[in-house]
Amino acid sequence: MLFLIPIGGGIPAGVLLASKRGIGWAVMLILYFFSDVVLALVFEPLMLLVIRAGKHSAFFARFNDVMKKSTAKTISNYGTRLRPHTLVAISFGVDPMTGRAATVAAGHGFVAGWMLAIFGDMLFFALLMASTLWLHSVLGDGTVATVVILVVMMVVPYLVRRIREAFSAKPAQS
Q: Is 170 within a domain?
């Protein structure tokens, strides 16, 4: 059930809970994949419903406009060409729902779009699962391992942004 929560914090807790109950990593991958399929089957109709409602409601029209701008801003961090590997990276770096929104913007349909989004999310899950299981084996404490993983998940992207900003702010030397 923790894998159905569409936030990264559910992953370390779900991995450790599954491990404690004797569920191996391969089964965890399968369970997480099915949680992504459930997400696709729930999110896609909701996304289409909100898009359709935007044609008849000022509130949903504004909501759709805000979502388009947010998605465009997120996508801009990955460049202007939305190739499959870029779409996978968006899903890996943000979340599968944003990944799906990006695949819609790139013109992909339901199956191809969700395949790309789920692939990126599965890579993210595999990385977090392996990190969590390894850190738990080193530390011997699931709570500390989960907290460390969550802190790393929040701090590393911030540091990467800061480093990128620092390098892009340097004037070119001749």
A: no
How many structural domains comprise the chain? 1
Best CA proximity match to 116, nearest among 130, 126, 104:
104
d(CA 20, CA 40): 28
Q: How big is the chain, counted in residues? A: 174
In a domain, 174, yes or no: no
Q: Give the tens place of pLDDT for each residue, 80-133.
A: 678 898 899 888 888 888 889 888 888 899 999 999 999 999 999 999 899 999
The domain in which residue 80 lies consists of 2-163
At a CB cut-off of 8 Å and minimum separation 6, what does 33 contact?
118, 122
Is 74 in contact with 102 (CB distance < 8 Å)? yes
- Residue 36 located in a structural domain: yes
Cα–Cα separations (whole angstroms), residue 154 to 47, 112, 133: 27, 30, 19
